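All the exercises in this workshop are built on plain-text protein records. A learned vocabulary of local backbone shapes supplies the integers on the structure line. Once this layout is familiar, the rest of the handout is easier to follow. An example says more than a description, so a record of this kind follows:
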Amino acid sequence: MPLWLREQRWQQTLSAVYLSLPLRGARATPASIFCTERYLKVSIPPFLFEAILYAPIDDTNSTAKIENGNIFFTLYKKEPAMWDSLTLENVDKEKLQYLRENAVLKAHEKAKEEREAKKVMKEEHKKYALEATMKLEEAERKRIEDLKEKERQKVTKELELWRNQQKEADKYKSTQKERELHQEIGKLKERKNEKMNKTTIPNERTSKTKHKHTKGHGSCSMFSQNLKEEQLPAPRSAATIKVNFTPRVFPTALRESRVAEEEEWLHKQAEARRTISADLSELEDLKEEEKNPDWLKDKGNKMFAMGNYLAAVNAYNLALRLNNKLPLLYLNRAACHLKLRNLHKAIEDSSKALELLTPPVPDNESARVKAYVRRGTAFCQLELYTEGLQDYEAALKIDPKNKNIEKDAEKIRHLIQGTMQGS
């Protein structure tokens, strides 16, 4: 049999009733209190308090506070008036049973409505998180396409400028060659004229003698004289020229290469080979290109674009086993986990990517924004809106002009406020 609590103190105003109920050493919790418009019950075994209130109250705004061995109720009246007593007097058992059952039924209906409302809100949150992720990916895809278009236009302009310069250079060279050719022809003509003058204006006596004694042989002597004057030089001797080139791993010339990028690539390859030779005996059957983390990353990106998220995760897993210091691998795998609803793994991969993206520099701003947004999206889908809002605000600090992230953060704030008001 329960022990009824008969000791209570109450006061009232036109708008509220203040009730104090002693606990007598018992320990009460919020679950021990049940309150509706006309019915109030406190069940703290072995004690029990039950009251049919004199008039209806606003059970939504009414409060109960447990402290110093007492329960203090603040019950707000629906209609301002002074009550004659706290409870209804002379209530028979049938009416008491009816009011009790009616209160319990209303409480069940209200709880069912709240559950339905919470379910609808949860579905809206999921839909919103999905839309936010899709918007973010669409914005990123558009940004990449814009960058590609700008680079294409830039390369086209540079190529056109280079062609014009080549045309001008070829034109200048042809003009120079023509000028040099005219000069050479002029020199040859002058030289020929000088030779003709030397052979056609000889001494008078010599010419007469020649005319008499060498008649019919003058042309032969002149031809032989020209041959003597225009003797060709001896041919050059044959030789072999040896050319020594700088030893290089890459096929391009040193002047056409980027030393920093090549050294970074060689360092990654060496690290991958060390990892493979350490204890990954199961990778022996793979091709040489399949042991390259960059090749595996590109393969995972293609699988993600095709919607095969599990295959993309497998590619990123293998790439991380070869090189676990690449933040983009964790970042891409977090996106796959979001698609597969592996929210805790998405949070872990995003956090690992943020650890590797240090120190924060302008070159890794885009990657850090993605990491914060993807981790914040996973938090929101887990209904951890406070943590999700913190990540979205961190992304806004890096990229304050991103309107999509700002809108998503504002929606999360409204959700947090609605959750606080509902509780």
